[in-house]
Amino acid sequence: MRQLMMIHLLDAIPDKAAPEGFFIRNWQPGDEESWVEICKYGLLGPDATVNEWNRAILGQGHLDPKTDTFFVCRSSDGAPVATITGYVRTDGVGDIHMVACREDARGHGIGEFMLSRAMQKLRAELPGDGHRVELTTDDWRIPAIVGYLRGGFHPVEYDEGMVERWTKICDTIRMHGFEMLTETGEPTGIVL
Q1: Residue 186: which of 164, 165, 158 has the closest Cα?
Q2: Domain map (residue ranges) of the chain
Q3: Which helix (H) or strand (E) holds 14?
Q4: 83 has a pLDDT exceeding 80
Q5: Tens of pLDDT, residues 44-79
Q6: Is residue 190 helix, strand or coil?
Q7: DSSP sequence for 36-105
Q8: Structure confidence at residue 130 (pLDDT)
Q9: SS3 state at 110
Q10: pLDDT digits (tens, 9 = 90+) for 114-173
Q11: Residue 176: what pLDDT?
């Protein structure tokens, strides 16, 4: 089964402040192990190594971790607790990639904050009409999906069964009124 896809048309990006006790910074050399440890919370298996960093981050065409990968850190000790990557792919489409947060840091609004920052960066890099940002996710990542919907992303109908899957998710989270888009960002006429 293919992952769910979501598109943001760069029209309205919520401006979220850093949650109290946290700050955001770009990747720095040596952060690879922190990234792996954070991504073990929902994205990577428990045996993941820096090889996953090499594949998922360094293996992407135009991705520069110095400018495209962010960490949210605790103000008290500077320890990274969450990560997000936002970059422009070789096809000129923005991509939100590898979003994860340690379980012990959840519930503070970190996800919505770092999504807001990554989207603001991408909007600056993709000015003008017709640009979009995409992401893929899994049906079971309900808290992430809620954050993406609140952040202005639209569900995408790009494969068989997507309408039914998205309807089930919207019913589960009790959030409705989202217009589905095609994978090129055009409205489908379906409102969930």
Answers
A1: 158
A2: 4-191
A3: none
A4: yes
A5: 999 999 999 999 999 998 899 999 999 999 999 999
A6: strand
A7: HHHHTTTTS-TT--HHHHIIIIITSTT--HHHHEEEEEETTT--EEEEEEEEE-TTS-EEEEEEEE-GGG
A8: 72
A9: helix
A10: 999 999 999 999 977 778 999 999 999 999 999 999 999 999 999 999 999 999 999 999
A11: 96
DSSP characters over 112-171: HHHHHHHHHHHHHHS-STT--EEEEE-TT-HHHHHHHHHTT-EEB--STTHHHHHHHHHH
> How many Å apart are CA 37 and CA 101, to the nearest integer?
10
CA distance 157 to 126: 23
**Residue 29 host element (H or E):** none
Q: Which CATH number fits domain 4-191: 3.40.50.620, 3.40.190.10, 3.40.630.30, 3.40.50.300?
A: 3.40.630.30
Q: Which two tokens stand for residue 1?
A: 């089964």
* Phi, then psi, of 32 in degrees rounded to 5: -60, -45
Q: Give me the phi and psi of 25, to 5 degrees please.
A: -150, 165
Determine if the pTM surpasses 0.85: yes
Q: Which DSSP letter does residue 175 get?
A: -
Euclidean distance between CA atoms 114 and 65, whole angstroms:
15
Rg, C-alpha atoms of the chain: 16
pLDDT at residue 85 in the model: 98
Share of the chain above pLDDT 90, in %: 92
